[in-house]
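QA checklist item 7 of 12: single-chain prediction sanity check.
[x] sequence parsed
[x] length recorded as 111
[x] structure emitted
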Amino acid sequence: MGSPALPPANRRGVSFNIGASDNPLITRDANQGFALTSAVSPNASTNLFEVFVFDKDDASTAMVNITFVTPGAVVRPGLSIGFNRVCVTPKGQNPRTNLPATSCIDVAYVP
């Protein structure tokens, strides 16, 4: 006999939907939508997230707030020409230091 299986730990955070049609790696749209998924909590404060966009020099170029009221959402943070790293983290957190709760995707904007 072994130990009983433990339930998976809850992860506070957001995931980018997988699939080129949901979240492309290259876009010609400066306002490309990104499909996100998150568990919705009865505690409203844990449903608040911030979306940051960083350019090739790691400078923050855009920030958008998002509140999950359903498990899925689309966000359009605004992209700079060239490389962009789009990151989602719990509201008030730093996406550079709160790595366990931060999800990122890299995308190139080529007008």
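[x] summary fact logged: The longest strand covers residues 82-90.
[ ] second reviewer sign-off
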